[in-house]
Amino acid sequence: MFAKAPEMTLFNWAALLEPVHPGRRDAWQTLPTSFDYFQIMPFFRNGPAAGTPLPTMARVAGNSLEQVDAFLGKLGRPIGIKCYKPCNSTGEDFLHNYLGMIGLPIDLYPTFPTDAEMVLLTESAKFDPEIVAKIKGQLDAGKSVVVTSGLFHALQGKGIEDIVELRCTDRRIVADGYSTGFGSGNRSGLGDGTRPQQILFPEIRFLTNDAWALVSAMADDVGYPILLMDRYGKGTIYVWTIPDNPHHLYRLPPAVTSAVKDVLMKGFFVRIDGSSEVALYAYDNHTFIVESYLDHETEVKVSVAGKVTKLHDLVTSADLTGRDPPASRWPRRSEDGERRKVFDVHLMPHSYSVFAAEQ
Q1: Topology of domain 270-358, CATH
Q2: Cβ-based neighbours of 11, under 8 Å, separated by 6 or more
């Protein structure tokens, strides 16, 4: 329903009528979560289903739909980072799902979205035999393209080297830290002071001073590009190195994910920064939903572009006030400046908040 699907099917009638047995929820069952198992019990104890020992999955679905009825009509058309995935294509399968779970709203298209200022391409785009020409066309028009390491590897020897001179090797590196910066002498570490979990990345080789690593993975004090930038024509191309195990995107320190969002979400009206496994649903009328899939409470920073002064909660009617964001992490890139307000949002486990950005 958050994705505004025109139709939803609850399939397997027998399963809908089976009783629901609460799972492992000791950590949050007494908290005011979006779905409350105890809230639906009166329906079975004293209501129409009195005498039924346990709720059914149909009642759980019904309770969820009744909740969203209160605000669904206030949400606009879903929007996100435009991604091109040709029909019946494969490659880096399910990566778009993982990206959504690190707070990147994804808007998939079966045709190349030439109207987008930023296009994200994963390995599945290799199924288009004209994909290199389409990338060049986007860049010649002064726009930006982000390609994943999986797509770049698949396009090696097929003309992608004309755009940016780098090579995806068959070697791997184990990251033990991260850094960022733009320009000589502006490098700084990314992290919270603790040693990050180890992640296996494919090694990418590039020509120094031809391209620039905006975000690097460190391995024994040697840097390897995680987000690489290069110019082509009037546009900018970025190569994003994806871990061998895409689930390890959740292991990245929040500061690393935020540095990637600085590029992918530039110009997008809302973004979230904080823990992984928190999703963002955005709409074209400046409303949005932040939903946590974590087993514990968490804080996220929501930043909104424009002259926004407050966030109005469409469920509780409460208002949040914002503050000015910190300075850009890349001070020498003059195009990074965006007027934004930052808001602190507290989320319960497995719960969501619905907001309208207002002046």
Answers
A1: Immunoglobulin-like (2.60.40)
A2: none
Which residue from 106, 103, 82 is spatially nearest to 94, judged by alpha carbons?
Answer: 106
pLDDT in tens, 146-191: 999 999 999 999 999 999 999 999 999 999 999 988 766 667 888 7
What single DSSP character describes residue 129?
T
Terminal alpha carbon distance of the chain: 27
pLDDT band at 327 (very low <50, low <70, confident <90, very high): low
Into which CATH architecture does domain 81-264 fall?
A: 3-Layer(aba) Sandwich (3.40)
- Residue intervals of the chain classified under CATH 2.60.40 are 270-358
What is the spatial distance between Cα 221 and Cα 226, in angstroms, rounded to a whole number?
Answer: 15
**Range(s) of the chain covered by CATH 3.40.50:** 81-264
DSSP 297-356: -EEEEEEEESS--EEEETTT--EEE-BPPPPPS-TT-GGG---EEEEEEEE-TT-EEEEE
Distances (CA, A) of 78 to 106, 146, 171: 10, 21, 39
pTM here is 0.90
Cα separation, 40 vs 356, in Å, equals 28
Residue 2 one-letter amino acid: F
